[in-house]
Every structure is written in structure tokens, then in C-alpha cells.
């Protein structure tokens, strides 16, 4: 099984090859075993070696010597003729080798003019902010002369599969054009599931779809620049079997369900009528799916998914956003998840089935967590909080009150991390077992083949609750002992301060709760104006302290999420990274892999430009 990432062979990637023609399984007449790629020098250098033997003809009779000289002359003439024949015929491309030449890529069509609208939406033409990151970190030239070169069995052929994933964010839209290689059974046309990421093209533009709240058609056309780039990248014969999906994140929700639905409907219609790709999904992505796709991305890049990773444990992921935090992990062998809870997710990838725990804690993102702590402080008579610097001021809005008069000013004190962490612990991450609910009924539990446990409590309560605020989760330290990757604000608030060990963005950093606590203690003292504490901090950390008055609070929140919420020990090692093996650790790659793998399992991924379109 090859690595899921094709390693770069040189710094100048070769041009993309038409796989169907190259392998001789498309419209050409050639075979996959053609040797037309050999040079004349290499072909003949080993056939005609120079001779260094000495002549001894003077010892032979004259007639015999003359006869042999004549024979030698004939041999020489024949050799010259053979060389000429080889030079003329063997080095001339045959019709089959001509069919294997790379096909020209289609050129982007001219960008249509953006129609004007009454509300004058931002232009998507000349003024659009389009940037390109052509991530050729893999060799995009798949020079496969036979199936064995790629690791395919004798009854399979290597083939290419493209996938387009559009990330419609709040500030802009981005497209990822992924190229995968895999083995396809020649007889059945079904993939063997060994996806190898071979190449990625990344394009982005501004503004985002939410900039067109009253003009759905303009929103749909704003993606044309991205899609034309994709058309130029994907070979024409593979357009029809290249899936495209658009997933909007929370930004589109801000304009309301009616307007966001109108925009998504217009986009889906334009994708189906103006572009040749196979439109699969156009929707607003659930936060839980985002975490699950990120889990697929991380474990794919670590080569711990599919049959090749059967002996290795998958990694867990924790994602800390602004409004919520997510966790996804596969419990170790011998640990079972309840069948009657919504946190249980079953999925398949690369011929293996997975049962994972997944949950999104709404209201426990960093910004929402900060607001909760400030609100708890504001509810006190003196509205003072040790998590802020001495004398520092932060406003908190009363729930449900959007007026400026509804804001309360919270004043910082100089009590430091110890008092701050106790305050956070007392007001967040409630671990009361009595709150843990199964979210079901006795009948639902029986139907799932699971005992309805209540441990003597009220109906609907269970005793296997290690989450917080009444959320079911098996005890993390007891049920999972693999690597844990922490992303987003975990990275921004810890790794960005430059205090962790590791090799940087490409391979990430490692940290423990001891590191978080040490950093939090120093930062909380520094924000209180402690001169001695400031001497122990780097210029980078001190600058962050000056720019972010809530840094002490943020670190305290993270510390308690890991220690109290997830019950991790102080010595448990966590990893944080923005990239693994040069590839971003976000959700887009995982979503594309899940999409392509699902197509392959259904037999919809074809070779030589022939495929079944999804219904």
C-alpha cells in the first residue's frame, strides 16, 4: 500500500499526464506497456558495445584471410544498415505512442461581466481579490508504465480521480482541486480504495457569499473565477466524473435562513447548468461534520485510515473555535460506545469500518467561554475578575440585551492565575453526573440492544458521563490512549506564543497541561504588572499580553477545558499543528476524501474518462 501522499521527486513538477492515454485504456490504440519513452541513446548503447579484441589474421592462409576480410566487410555493412534502420524507424513515434502524449489543458473561458444590481454588491471581476496557492508539494506527473509501479495488483490499473471542494466562508470563498491516484479493477471498474493524494490546486477570492444577501444570482456568479480555474486544471475527459461540493460555514447563517437558502439554490442551479462537473452537495455545513472531516484529514495524512493503517491507532482531534469546541476520537479496542446516543458515529473508509465518538459543545468556543466567565463576574456585586490584568476593563453584554446600556464593565484584579482558574472551574465545565442524560427513552434503548441505565436517578439519566453539562462521553483517558491533535484557538493561544517544542507549522508542536499552566501563570502575573514575571517571558509573549488583555482568561479557560472538561492528566502529551506533511489540517481534504471514497464504494469512480454520475 503506497503512502497516502506522493512524495516530490524534484522541485519542478512535470506537467500533468492524460492518464487514460498514458495507460492505453482510453481512446488511443497503444498499450500500457509501450517503450516509446526510451531514448535512442539508451536503446542502442547496450546493444552495440565497442569491441577491444585484437586481430590475429596474419597467422591464417591468404585465401582464408581474404575470405574472412570479405565476411567482416559484409558484417560491418549490415551493422551500419541496422543502425540506420533503428535511427529512422525505432526512434520515430508510432501512432500508439502519439496517443500517449499529454493532452492540452482547456483554457479558462473569459470571465463574464458581473450584472449590476440595485444594492451594488462588490464586484467579482476586475476588483475581485483572487489569490493563488498552487500547492505542488507532490509530483503532479504520474509516470506509471505499469500497474506494479503504483503498487496495483495484476488485475488492476492505476487511474486518476479529481474532486472539487468549495469552502464558502464568511470573508471569502476558496476552492481546493484535489487529484488522487488509485487502483481500479479492470474487469469491474471499481476502485480498490487506495487513495493517494497526488496534487492540490488552491484558489481563493473575496468577498464571501454573505456579501450578496439580496442578489443570489450575483453570489452564484462570484464563484465563476474559481470554477474556471478548476476547469483548466481537470482533464476534459474527466470533467463528468469529477464531483464538486460547496459547503458554507457559519458566516452564511448570519444573513438569515431565507436569504442563505436563496443563495445556495442559485449556486446549485449555476453549477448544474454552466459547468460540466458532477454536482453532489451545496449546503451549510454542520459544525459536527466539520470536526469529523478534520478527523479524516488528520488520520489520512498520518496514514492511519483504511487497510494500510489497520495496525495503527487513529488520532483524536480537538477543535476550539470561537463559538463552540468539538472532539472526535475512536475508542481503543475493548471500549464500546452506547448505541443509543447521538454522539456515536459510524463510517467507512478504505475498506474499514469505524465507530467514533463525536460531539460539538455549543457555547464553549473561546469567545463564548470568555463571555460566560465575564458574565459570571458581572453577576457579582463588585464585578471584579482575577483573570484580567490589574485595573483592566472589559465589557460584557447582558444576555438578550443588545443595547449599549445593557453592557456591564468588569474590572481586573491582581490576584493571578490561582484565583482565576478557581473562578473558571466554579462557573464552567459542570461535571455533575446527575446532569448526564441519554437523550432517549427505555423503548429506544431496548431497540438499540442496550440496557437503559439510570443508576438510581431520574428516568433518562445514565452513569457513563465524562463530558460536561450533561453530555455523554466515555472517560477520555481510559478509553483513548493515542495521539491527540488540538487545533484552531488551541494553536493560536499556545503555539503562536513560541514557547513549545517542535519543528513548526509543517510538523507541529507538542505540549502538556504543565506547559499550559506555566504559560498561564506567567501571563497572568504579567498582565497584573509583575515586573519579575515579565523578565521570565519572551518579547513575543509580552507583545501578546499587551495586545490581548484577555490572554490570561483565555489560557485559564483552555487549561480547564483540558483538565476539568476532558479530564486529561498534566503529563498527557498533545500535539498542535496547522499542517501535516505540508498539507493543511482543516476539514476540506477530509470532506473530499469522504466524498470520493463513498463514490468508489458505490462503483461510481471510473477510469479512462468513463464514469457513472451520481443520482
Report on this structure.
The structure is a single chain. This protein is an alpha+beta fold. The protein has a domain at 129-285 and 588-601: Nucleotidyltransferase, domain 5, CATH 3.30.420.40. Helices cover 32% and strands 19% of the residues. The strands form five sheets. It has a six-stranded mixed beta sheet with strand order 1-4-3-2-5-6, with helices on both faces. The chain has a five-stranded mixed beta sheet with strand order 9-10-8-7-14. Strands 11-13-12 form a three-stranded mixed beta sheet, with helices on one face. A hairpin with a 4-residue loop joins strand 2 and strand 3 (173-185). The longest helix has 29 residues, at 62-90. Residues 7-62, 88-148, 450-463 and 605-615 have low confidence and may be disordered.
Oligomeric state, counting identical vs distinct chains: single chain
CA gyration radius, whole angstroms: 32 Å
Give the structural class: alpha+beta
Helix content: 25-40%
Biggest β-sheet strands, sense, barrel: 6 strands, mixed
Strand order of the largest sheet: 1-4-3-2-5-6
What is the distance, rounded to the nearest whole angstrom, between the alpha carbons of the first and last residues? 31 Å
- The tally of strands reads 19
The CATH topology of the domain at 129-285 and 588-601 is given as: Nucleotidyltransferase, domain 5
Unreliably modeled segments = 7-62, 88-148, 450-463, 605-615
Q: What is the CATH-assigned architecture of the domain at 129-285 and 588-601?
A: 2-Layer Sandwich
User: CATH superfamily of the domain at 129-285 and 588-601, called what?
Assistant: ATPase, nucleotide binding domain
Amino acid at each position: 500500500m503506497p503512502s497516502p501522499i506522493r512524495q516530490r521527486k524534484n522541485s519542478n513538477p512535470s506537467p500533468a499526464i492524460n492518464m487514460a492515454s498514458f495507460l492505453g485504456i482510453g481512446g488511443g490504440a497503444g498499450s500500457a506497456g509501450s517503450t516509446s519513452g526510451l531514448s535512442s541513446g539508451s536503446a542502442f548503447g547496450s546493444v552495440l558495445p565497442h569491441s577491444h579484441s585484437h586481430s590475429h589474421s596474419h597467422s591464417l592462409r591468404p585465401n582464408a584471410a581474404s575470405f574472412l576480410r570479405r565476411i567482416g566487410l559484409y558484417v560491418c555493412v549490415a551493422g551500419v544498415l541496422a543502425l540506420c534502420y533503428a535511427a529512422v524507424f525505432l526512434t520515430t513515434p508510432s501512432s500508439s505512442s502519439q496517443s500517449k502524449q499529454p493532452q492540452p489543458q482547456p483554457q479558462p473561458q473569459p470571465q463574464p461581466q458581473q450584472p449590476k444590481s440595485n444594492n451594488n454588491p462588490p464586484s467579482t471581476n476586475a476588483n475581485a481579490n483572487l489569490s493563488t496557492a498552487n500547492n505542488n508539494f507532490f509530483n503532479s506527473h504520474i509516470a506509471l508504465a505499469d500497474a506494479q509501479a503504483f503498487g496495483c495488483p495484476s488485475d488492476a490499473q492505476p487511474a486518476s480521480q479529481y474532486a472539487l471542494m468549495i469552502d464558502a466562508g464568511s470573508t471569502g470563498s476558496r476552492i481546493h482541486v484535489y487529484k488522487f491516484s488509485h487502483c481500479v479493477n479492470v474487469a469491474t471498474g471499481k476502485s480498490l480504495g487506495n487513495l493517494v493524494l497526488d496534487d492540490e490546486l488552491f484558489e481563493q477570492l473575496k468577498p464571501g457569499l454573505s456579501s450578496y444577501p439580496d442578489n443570489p444570482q450575483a453570489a452564484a456568479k462570484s464563484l465563476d473565477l474559481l470554477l474556471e480555474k478548476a476547469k483548466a486544471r481537470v482533464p476534459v475527459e474527466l470533467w463528468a466524473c469529477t464531483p464538486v461540493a460547496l459547503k458554507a460555514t457559519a458566516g452564511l447563517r448570519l444573513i438569515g435562513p431565507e436569504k442563505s437558502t436563496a443563495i445556495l439554490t442559485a449556486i446549485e442551479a449555476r453549477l448544474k447548468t454552466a459547468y460540466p462537473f458532477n454536482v453532489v452537495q451545496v449546503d451549510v455545513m454542520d459544525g459536527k461534520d466539520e470536526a469529523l472531516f478534520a478527523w479524516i484529514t488528520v488520520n489520512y495524512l498520518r496514514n492511519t485510515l483504511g487497510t494500510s493503517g489497520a495496525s495503527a491507532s487513529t488520532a483524536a482531534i480537538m477543535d476550539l473555535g470561537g463559538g463552540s469546541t468539538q472532539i472526535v476520537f475512536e475508542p481503543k479496542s475493548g471500549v464500546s460506545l452506547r448505541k443509543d446516543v447521538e454522539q456515536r458515529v459510524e463510517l467507512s473508509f478504505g475498506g474499514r469500518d469505524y465507530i467514533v465518538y463525536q460531539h460539538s459543545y455549543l457555547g464553549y468556543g473561546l469567545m463564548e467561554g470568555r463571555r460566560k466567565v465575564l458574565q459570571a463576574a458581572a453577576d457579582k456585586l463588585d464585578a471584579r475578575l482575577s483573570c484580567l490584568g490589574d485595573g483592566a476593563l472589559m465589557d460584557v453584554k447582558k444576555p438578550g440585551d443588545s443595547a449599549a446600556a445593557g453592557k456591564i464593565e468588569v474590572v481586573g484584579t491582581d490576584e493571578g492565575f490561582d484565583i482565576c482558574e478557581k473562578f473558571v472551574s466554579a462557573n464552567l465545565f459542570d461535571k455533575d453526573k446527575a446532569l448526564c442524560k441519554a437523550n432517549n427513552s427505555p423503548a429506544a434503548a431496548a431497540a438499540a440492544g442496550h440496557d437503559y441505565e439510570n443508576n438510581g436517578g431520574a428516568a433518562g439519566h445514565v452513569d457513563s458521563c465524562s463530558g460536561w453539562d450533561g453530555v455523554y462521553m466515555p472517560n477520555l483517558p481510559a478509553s483513548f490512549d493515542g495521539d491527540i491533535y488540538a487545533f484552531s484557538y488551541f494553536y493560536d493561544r499556545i503555539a503562536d506564543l513560541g514557547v513549545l517544542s517542535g519543528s513548526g507549522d509543517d510538523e507541529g508542536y507538542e505540549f502538556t497541561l504543565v506547559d499550559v499552566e506555566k504559560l498561564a501563570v506567567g501571563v497572568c502575573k504579567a498582565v497584573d504588572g509583575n515586573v519579575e514575571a515579565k523578565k521570565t517571558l519572551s518579547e513575543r509573549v509580552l507583545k501578546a499580553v499587551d495586545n490581548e488583555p484577555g490572554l490570561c482568561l483565555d489560557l485559564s479557560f483552555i487549561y480547564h477545558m483540558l483538565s476539568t472538561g476532558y479530564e486529561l492528566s498534566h503529563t498527557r502529551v498533545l500535539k498542535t499543528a496547522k499542517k501535516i506533511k505540508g498539507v493543511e489540517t482543516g476539514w476540506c481534504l477530509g470532506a473530499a476524501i469522504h466524498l470520493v471514497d463513498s463514490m468508489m464504494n458505490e462503483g461510481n469512480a471510473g477510469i479512462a474518462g468513463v464514469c457513472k454520475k451520481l443520482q
